[in-house]
Amino acid sequence: MDVEIITIGNELLDGRVANTNAIFLSIELRKFLGAELRLIGLMTRQVTTVRDVVPEIVECLQLAWKRAQILLITGGLGPTTADVTTQAIAQFFGVELAFQESAYQAMQQRFASRGIPMPECNRKQAYIPQNTQILPNLHGTAPGFYYHQQDHFLAAMPGVPSEMKAMFTNLVLPYLMQHFGSNPWISRKWRTTGIAESKIFDDLKPLDWLSSDVYLSPLSSPMGIDLEIRFPPASSQPQMANILSRIEQVVGPFTYTRDSADDLETVIAKALIQRHQTLAVAESCTGGMVSNRLTNVPGSSAFFQQGIIAYSNDAKITQLNVPQSILERFGAVSAECALAMAQGIRARAGTNIGLATTGIAGPTGETPLKPLGLVYLGYSDGHQNAVSQFIFKDERLIHKQRASQAALALLWKQIQS
């Protein structure tokens, strides 16, 4: 069975800077859907993005219907006049829109639970194409819907990630598994940090030990490289073991989790909780991103005690007890300052571990001796200290992301030693 994913929305195509987040979300949605489909043996053959224009959506559906048996659509189910996905799908099927009282009541109840009246425009979302079935939305107002006829299936879901993921996982995926699931491919995955994609493949070369029916796929981000390998269902255990061993030799030292979707902060949280250790973080160049990531993990109060953004020199002195002599002699962006910050936050919070970041995020602030993007990371646990240095020459947000990941990688390395 071939699957096509269709994402709908003007903001995904028009290139406005203000909508770069929407573009990122679109990529994340496609990544999520593709990964979940692989688990039940369905492969995504094409991903298409189309504007909120009815004729263009209809044309896209006509082409997709010919080349794929399963169409998964996200976006364009909102209450505004710009949200035209439902209208376009009805036109594609040649049917009218039908008012669904149950969907309307669910929307009213959702607004009532928030203590606010429902705007009249939301009524539009209760209309779905005839001959389709409702997919309830437990996290938003827009219901989804699906159509299944013989060997074709179409599901329309909201574009909001939390709403789409819940609807797909709880409703669409079980349906697909029941009616279309086949023998799944065998997948193994490494989540790595601290090694470049080019370095991984340079160390794996030549790849002639991989047969043509085995797929090795990297996924790069500022947080690291996710490496996934997929074997056909009938692959032999000796063949897989040999391939997995060769990959493990290259990426094993940089891997923080295997065959898991856990991010680095989640892996660290589990380790700290298991060890009954506590942590405090002092941040400068990352502006609170390290603390934010760690406290996004459910149950983080069991290990995370305190976070301070000490951006100025005065804050480093008054809040973290960084000696003024260190700042005068070595500067705020230095190995000495990073370590002093880590020691200072650990002493202030009374934790087992202190972690610190300081650097030049840019685009200004560099000197002849300290280039743009320079970062120092400090670690202290009362028994051992460690400092790492990096240069991340990226725009400001990506610099912060990469610096926060490097700080967590330093923490991970130290608590494993």
Concise account of the structure shown:
Helix content is 40%, strand content 24%. With 417 residues, it is α/β, with parallel strands linked by helices. The longest helix has 21 residues, at 396-416.
Task: Give short descriptive properties of this protein.
417 residues; alpha/beta; Molybdenum Cofactor Biosythetic Enzyme, Chain A; Alpha-Beta Plaits; Maf protein; 3 domains; 5-stranded mixed β-sheet
Describe this structure in words.
The chain is of the alpha/beta class and 417 residues long. The chain is 40% helix and 24% strand. It has 13 helices and 17 strands. A six-stranded mixed beta sheet has the order 2-1-3-8-7-6, sandwiched between helices. The longest helix is centred in the C-terminal third of the chain and has 21 residues, at 396-416.
Fold blueprint:
Layout: E1 2-8, H1 20-39, E2 43-50, H2 54-67, E3 70-74, H3 85-93, E4 97-99, H4 101-113, E5 127-129, E6 133-135, E7 144-149, E8 152-157, H5 161-180, E9 186-192, H6 197-204, E10 215-221, E11 224-231, H7 237-251, E12 255-258, H8 264-275, E13 279-283, H9 289-295, E14 304-309, H10 313-320, H11 324-329, H12 335-349, E15 353-359, E16 374-380, E17 385-391, H13 396-416
Parallel strand pairs: 1-2, 1-3, 3-8, 13-14, 13-15
Antiparallel strand pairs: 4-5, 6-7, 7-8, 9-11, 9-12, 10-11, 15-16, 16-17
Helix pairs in contact: 1-5, 2-3, 8-13
